[in-house]
Design brief:
Blueprint (H helix, E strand, L loop, with lengths): L9 E5 L5 H9 L4 E5 L2 H9 L5 E8 L3 E2 L3 H4 L6 E9 L3 E4 L10 E5 H5 L2 H7 L2 E5 L2 H11 L4 E5 L1 H7 L2 E5 L8 E8 L11 E9 L5 H11 L4 E7 L9 E7 L5 H12 L1 E11 L2 H10 L1
Parallel strand pairs: 1-2, 1-3, 7-8, 7-9
Antiparallel strand pairs: 3-4, 3-11, 5-11, 6-9, 6-10, 12-14, 12-15, 13-14
């Protein structure tokens, strides 16, 4: 983002230019200006302090699972989830201009990207080098100018760092998709009569069957929980915080009743956002029925 860009047009992401989060920003908000940030905390701060309107934060991947640290950081970011975005991950084998598939000897990238392209790496007999992220690996390969080095990254990374794609769509799994959360300082009020998702965190009381009782209201009210994950907070091994996505809007009677029952059996319930369900989610649900 240039210095003269209006903060209202900026969307923050964690990573270097060319990262998949950068690509998600461009695809979801093509009229906005992506703002790269070193850490997730920096991206949250950019929105909280008014330097960006939104933050695009990866929450989980269909292959790698949840993104480390985000569940711990997001509840305390001071921001609200206002949307979700699903980005299909298409990995490319990138190298300096003049390189050939036959001449590549090593490949570097984020550990998850390397793991998602095992078949190609094995078939070419490449030496694997683990890097901090995909865009950083692309940048390093570009700076080296070494025709025997390659990186696994996005097509946007190739454009950003002047590399060529020796092979496209090299990921092993066709469903490789990352889900992103869009966060803002201000919450939104989506139409309760349209498909919505409510995201919240809660802690159960440290008693037998506490989780069963806390979630019972969602079953009796016929509500669909699409995500339920636990993680430790405060170094405690005897209690956990839970992260939940449920279909519905708190203004709807059934979800309101379920949340009231949840609060009765919990220490704390904190809604992180209520937002429209993305069309990708709805299409997957139909396909799975």
């Amino acid at each position: 983002m240039t210095d003269h860009t209006e903060p209202s047009r900026a969307i923050a992401f964690q990573g270097l230019p060319g990262a998949y989060s950068h690509l998600a920003c461009k695809n979801a908000f093509p009229a906005m200006v992506p703002l790269p940030c070193m850490t997730f905390e920096d991206a949250f701060a950019a929105v909280r302090e008014g330097r960006a309107r939104y933050a695009m934060i990866p929450i989980d991947n269909s292959l790698a699972g949840r993104v480390a640290d985000v569940h711990h950081l997001m509840p305390y970011s001071g921001l609200h989830i206002i949307g979700e975005h699903f980005e299909r991950i298409n990995h490319h084998l990138l190298a300096p201009k003049g390189a050939t598939l036959e001449g590549i000897r090593s490949v570097e990238s984020h550990v998850h990207a390397l793991g998602q392209c095992r078949n190609l790496i094995r078939s070419l007999g490449l030496t694997v080098i683990v890097g901090a992220d995909t865009a950083g690996a692309a940048s390093d390969v570009a700076k080296s100018g070494d025709l025997s080095r390659a990186a696994i990254a996005s097509e946007l990374a190739a454009e950003t760092y002047g590399l060529v794609s020796l092979k496209a769509n090299i990921e092993d799994a066709e469903h490789n998709t990352t889900r992103f959360m869009v966060l803002s300082r201000d919450a939104i009020e989506p139409n309760p009569n349209q498909p919505n998702v409510t995201t919240f965190v809660f802690r159960v009381r440290n008693r037998p069957a506490a989780l069963y009782k806390a979630l019972g209201g969602f079953a009796t009210n016929g509500l669909n929980i699409t995500k339920l994950e636990s993680y430790m907070v405060g170094g405690e091994f005897v209690a956990a915080q839970f992260y939940v996505d449920v279909e519905g809007h708190p203004a709807q009677r059934l979800l309101r009743l379920a949340l009231e029952e949840l609060e009765f059996f919990s220490h704390e319930v904190r809604i992180l956002g209520v937002y429209p369900a993305h069309p990708f989610r709805l299409a997957q649900r139909v396909a799975g029925e």
